[in-house]
Automatic annotation (TrEMBL):
Record bears the keyword Zinc-finger: yes
Gene3D superfamilies associated with the record: Classic Zinc Finger
C2H2-type domain mapped to chain residues: 178-207
Gene Ontology molecular function terms on file: DNA-binding transcription factor activity, RNA polymerase II-specific; RNA polymerase II cis-regulatory region sequence-specific DNA binding; zinc ion binding
Protein name: C2H2-type domain-containing protein
UniProt-annotated location(s): Nucleus
GO biological process: negative regulation of DNA-templated transcription
Keywords carried by this UniProt record: DNA-binding, Metal-binding, Nucleus, Repeat, Zinc, Zinc-finger
Coiled-coil ranges (or none): none
Domain of life from the UniProt record: Eukaryota
GO cellular component, one term: nucleus
Amino acid sequence: MSEAETNQSQESEGGNMLKIKCKPPPVIKESEFRYQCEWDTCDQIETDMSAFIKHVGTHVVKYHQQTLHADLGTGICYTCGWRACGTQIIGSEIDFNRHIYFHVFHVRIKYVGTHLSNTLRLNTCQIGTQSRNWIPELPENLECSWQDCGIIYDNPYLFYCHVSLHAQVYSEGRDVPCKCLWADCDAVVRSRHRLKEHLRSHTQEKVIACPTCGSLFCSRTKLVDHFLRQTHSDCLMETEKGSS
């Protein structure tokens, strides 16, 4: 199934199909993004990703300056100040920073999810908001393994942007063989666009998230499926109630 057209279907017990077919929504312009901080009681909104990163960075700096951390021997214990998270990170200051800046990235892809949901008029996620700011456990280092690179980031968004830029060594267009130069990878794809998609399999980058429950997905199709599965389950429950 291509990203050029979303075509989702779920089969009920009676054999009926629930299907949504639609063209993808227009790409969000950078000027359309809204980034809301959820550090402690802060609600500041930024319209520029660089400004948002800088803003959250001020919270991180103050946290390190004003908070006493317990040394557990295996690392320092840090507590995330992002609302609805509260994760304790045991490790270094870099480990803590990496966690906080993933929240920054998470805000961005949740906004992408909001845009998609509104455009396709999808039903609201029924899972709830308790997990909206839960984020996955991150690798120890965000290290670029592209040939002769090795740069390390503590900011996932900047890391993903950096890795994507490596694809620029190839020309734009279709049927342009692009070899992945990531360590221990021999993949060859047919375009620069496909190479960027492939690189996400190495970085584990997600491109969209549910704005309600916070679940992360590797494609818009997966998020639509996330909503459709819930809608289909609700339909089955109503059918069962009506037949009982």
